[in-house]
Amino acid sequence: MEDNSNRSSFSNRLGFVMAAAGSAVGLGNIWRFPYLAAKYGGGIFLLVYLVLVATFGYTMIMSETALGRMTKKSPVGAFAYFGDRFSLRFGGWINAIIPMLIVPYYSVIGGWVCKYLFAYMQGHVKQLASDTYFTSFIQNGISVELFFLLFIFLTLLIIYMGVQNGIEKVSKIMMPILVVLAFIIAGYSVTRPGAMAGVKYFLIPNFKDFSWMTVVTALGQMFYSLSIAMGILITFGSYMKKDVDIEKSTSQVEIFDTLIAILAGLMIIPAVFAFSGGDAASLGKGPSLMFITLPKVFASMGMGTFAGILFFLLVLLAALTSSIALAESAVSTFEDELGWNRKKSTLLMAAIMIVLGTLSSLGFGPLSSIHILGMDFLDFFDFLTNSVMMPVAAIAICLLILKNVTIEKMIAEVKSTSKFKRKKIYVFILKYLAIPFVAIILISSVLDVF
Ligand code: PFF
Predict the structure, then answer these.
(1) What tens digit of pLDDT does each residue of 108-128 get?
(2) What is the per-residue pLDDT for 343?
(3) CA separation (Å) from 429 to 35, 154, 375, 405, 415?
(4) Domain extent for 30
(5) Does some domain include residue 6?
(6) Ligand 1 mutation pick, 65, 98, 102, max ligand atoms within 8 A of CB
(7) DSSP string spanning 169-181?
């Protein structure tokens, strides 16, 4: 649908909520959130995360969406709208570049999901539950690379054909199924013998598990999961019509995204206690946690093959709607800023995804001897984007509002359609808290690796 400025727009609030939720709910919720929560303190991580979502998350998601709607531009254009200075160009580009660096390694994990889906379809439910299956898979360069390429192919095919309408329709059906299935698996998981200790670990904050890294990691995860500090919501806001309630629609996205993350935590963390003992080593497994723990749950339940197929199919879909949003935002930046056509822009994005993604995909096998700052490639790209670039992008957005746009104009944009119930909190965080807090996080996460 077109509005009078010739820019496409979502037809109504649901259109925005569906698109923003489709981009928000993905591997971040199902794969990344549980392993970080397991590693960084369980209940205390969850508590810090929830506080951050309700404060900084709320402020950023509102700001980006309103900025997009005000300027009707994607990030680079939205910053340039307020002047032609180096600082503004830098702010726009850092927001635009982040998705280009995330989507390659995101596709590697997407490839792992494809592999598991195929393995369940072949009925390998018992083999998948063994402790060594995952490790030997990711060490096998060829197999990992092929599944990674398959995932990229699926993402780019959909983007190139422009059939987002199709995928939106599919995700409208699949998302509710994912929620129902997540409830069933979580219900099964928390009732396994020994799982209660995991439920407690995940839901009850224990201050002795708190460390500063809990806050640092929770902030990065919040950016990642809500797709903020990476220009996406500026772009989505630019497609939002002038009569949509910004506060209500962004709150719905936040609530839905957080619900899925909590459900994923309940599927995975109690199972770590029930099946792997719940000691520090099994909780600290990192990126492999979902792939090691859930197969044990599936192998122990009736209809495990069916559950495995359905689960990995739904995760694949959630991952695809997110990788499409990530790659699409990069493609549209190339179209707008380099003046390239869609085909050329898609090809450039494909090249970036293949080159950078291959480093991550081979980083556990043939390239495993190479480390950057002590990290394998996948961890490095994850660290660079989440812990370094996103805080910088978030600071750039706050500075843009404080110095160029003005808070008054932001309030007017939001108020044109919403009551703006939490205006005081919004203004307070934006004016006094956001920049120093995010700067401290940024410095400490950088210091942590040196
Ligand atoms: N929010 C997504 C997730 O949690 O998996 C990741 C992501 C998707 C980030 C799309 C940015 C984006 F544009």
Answers:
(1) 999 999 999 999 999 999 999
(2) 87
(3) 29, 40, 34, 16, 18
(4) 13-449
(5) no
(6) 102
(7) HHHHHHHHHHHHH
DSSP structure class, residue 163:
-
Given pLDDT bands bounded at 50, 70 and 90, which one contains residue 3?
very low
Report residue 244: phi and psi, to 5°. Answer: -90, 135
**Residues 298, 302, 308, 314, CA torsion sign:** negative
Q: Rounded to whole angstroms, what are the CA distances from 344 to 152, 175, 272, 334, 353?
A: 16, 32, 46, 9, 14
The region, left, alpha or beta by phi > 0 then psi within -120 to 50, assigned to residue 6 is left
Assess if residue 3 is contained within a domain: no
**Distances from the Cα of 277 to the Cαs of 76, 128, 273, 289, 390, in angstroms?**
49, 19, 5, 13, 35
For residue 101 and ligand 1, the question of a CB distance below 6 A is answered with no
Does 383 contact ligand 1 (Cβ within 6 A)?
Answer: no
CA of 29 from ligand 1 middle (Å) equals: 9
122 and 420 Cβ atoms separated by less than 8 Å: no
CATH number of the structural domain spanning residue 390: 1.10.4160
pLDDT tens per residue across span 395-431: 999 999 999 999 999 999 999 988 899 999 999 999 9
Is the shortest distance between the CB of 185 and ligand 1 below 6 Å?
no
